[in-house]
Structure prediction request, 66 residues.
Amino acid sequence: MKKIIAVSASLLSAPAAFAGTVAYVAPEVVAIEEPATMGGSGAWLIPLVIVAILALALSGNNNAQG
Prediction:
């Protein structure tokens, strides 16, 4: 009888012993990289226009005819 109780106690406690770790391990976050743009945004147009306006304003003809 003692053997039956010992075997049943070991069978009931075995799954808890092999259940795994108690500590929570967070899953690893995968970083997603955005594809690099090839300069198609047109952001270079604004400084180019500003430089062109300044060049036209500063190179204007200032001859005053009376």
